[in-house]
Specification:
The chain is of the alpha+beta class. The chain has 6 helices and 8 strands. It has an 8-stranded mixed beta sheet, sandwiched between helices. It binds coenzyme A (COA).
Length: 181
């Protein structure tokens, strides 16, 4: 992944030496399950996930400049609803002790600029399970357009089934928003 920076954050490739930081937040039951995945059971599992991120080349580590700690991850994935080559879908999680400081909103905004200006994407999308108000707030603050809610889209590893709220933003909409903000 391209190394990019915002005021307080660095978005960069994960490194194997980040396994402790990743395990610290990915083992927290408040992190993976709301995003659809099982908490990591061991540091070894987190290391294996880092190797997968590096092989797939689609997830940034979010490093906080003030202490160099990896506090979360931000993925730029193939859009699961669209087959457009120039569309990407976000996925993200943040360590719980870092919530509420606008970090993820800052990271997503920076990645949107990179996506539309450097990758020349025509559309970026994101979704959240309908119970996830925290993620909805990040999405709203980043200016995504609500497209609707799909019912029973996701069966989680524990058998829970969720409805999903879906959002997107086109390059034109993002440029127009940027010009007024
Ligand atoms: C969703 C998430 C990334 C938000 O990151 P963040 O950096 O805290 O985002 P923000 O600071 O912009 O806060 C977003 C909202 O979270 C809520 N929030 C803020 N501080 C909080 C806290 N300390 N505890 C709980 N919720 C809080 C508020 O509703 C806030 O909205 P507001 O700005 O209108 O008040 C983070 O909560 C997270 O990683 N959750 C678990 C994984 C997850 O749900 N990922 C998304 C899957 S779609």
């Amino acid at each position: 992944m391209q190394h990019i920076e915002s005021e307080r954050l660095i978005l960069r490739d994960f490194r194997e030496m980040d396994a402790d930081d990743l395990y610290r937040y990915a083992s927290d039951p408040e992190i993976g399950p709301p995003a659809g995945w099982k908490p990591h059971a061991s540091r070894a599992e987190s290391l294996a996930i880092i190797r997968m991120f590096l092989a797939d080349d689609n997830v940034w580590a979010i490093e906080r400049k003030s202490d160099g700690r990896v506090i979360g991850s931000l993925g730029l994935h193939k859009d699961k609803w669209r087959n457009l080559p120039d569309a990407r879908m976000f996925g993200y999680v943040l360590a719980q002790d870092c919530w509420g400081h606008g970090y993820m909103t800052e990271a997503v905004r920076r990645a949107m600029s990179y996506g539309f200006l450097d990758l020349n994407l025509q559309l970026m999308s994101v979704s959240h399970y309908t119970f996830n108000d925290r993620s909805r707030r990040v999405i709203e603050k980043c200016g995504f357009v609500y497209e609707g809610t799909m019912r029973k889209t996701f069966l989680r590893y524990d058998g829970a089934v969720f409805d999903e709220a879906i959002y997107s933003i086109t390059k034109e909409e993002w440029l127009a928003r940027r010009s007024i903000s």
